[in-house]
Amino acid sequence: MTLEEIHGQEHTMETSDRVQSAGTALEELLLSAKKQDYLTVGVYESAKVMNVDPDSVAFCVLATDEEYECDIALQIHFTLIQAFCFDNDINVVRVNDIERLADLVGADETGEPKDAHCILVTSPSANPWKDPALDKLSLFCEESRSVYDWVPTITLPER
C-alpha cells in the first residue's frame, strides 16, 4: 500500500466523520430552532422570508429524494434559492432524506406533513440567535467550500 492510498483512506474516514458530525449538528439546530420558533418550512414560505427580510436568514437546508429529483420546477426553485443564499452569505446544505427532515420539523396545523424541501433557520436581526450547532454547521460549510463543495450534502443520523 502506498502513502497516497493510506492518506486517501484516512481522508475518506475523516470526511465520513465530518459529514456524520454535521448531520448530528443539523438535527440539533433544527430541533432547537423549532423550539424557538425560528424555522421557516416550505419553498414558497422560504422565498417570502428571503424577499421580505433576507438579513434574518441564518441557514438554509434544501432537501430532496429520488421521487423529486426529476421535478424541474423544484430544481429551478433550488437554483434560485442557492443563488440568493450565495449572494447574501447564507450557508446552504442539502439533505437526501426528506421524510426524516419532515419528521424533525413536524406537521402543520391540519396534521399534514410540512413541505420540507426548503427549510430556513432564521434569527431576529435585533437580537441575533447564537447556537453551537449553527456554529458547527457554519464551519462545516466553510471547510466544504475550501474544497469546492459549494452545497455539501449532509446525512441525518438514523432514528
Alpha plus pi helix count: 5
Instruction: Note the main sheet.
Output: 5 strands, mixed
Query: What is the N-to-C succession of helices and strands?
Result: HEHEHEHEHE
Helix content estimate: 40-55%
Alpha-beta classification: alpha/beta
Contiguous runs where pLDDT drops below 50 for at least 5 residues: 3-13
The main sheet orders its strands as: 1-4-2-3-5
What proportion strand? 5-15%
Distance between the termini: 37 Å
Calculate the mean pLDDT score and round it.
84
Task: Explain what you see.
The protein has 159 residues and is α/β, with parallel strands linked by helices. The protein has five helices and five strands, in the order αβαβαβαβαβ. It has helices spanning 3-36, 43-52, 72-87, 98-105, 132-146, and strands spanning 39-41, 57-63, 91-95, 118-122, 153-154. It has a five-stranded mixed sheet with strand order 1-4-2-3-5, sandwiched between helices. α1 (3-36) runs antiparallel to α5 (132-146). The model is unreliable at 3-13 (pLDDT under 50).
Put the structure in a nutshell.
This protein has helices at 3-36, 43-52, 72-87, 98-105, 132-146, and strands spanning 39-41, 57-63, 91-95, 118-122, 153-154. The protein is of the alpha/beta class and 159 residues long.
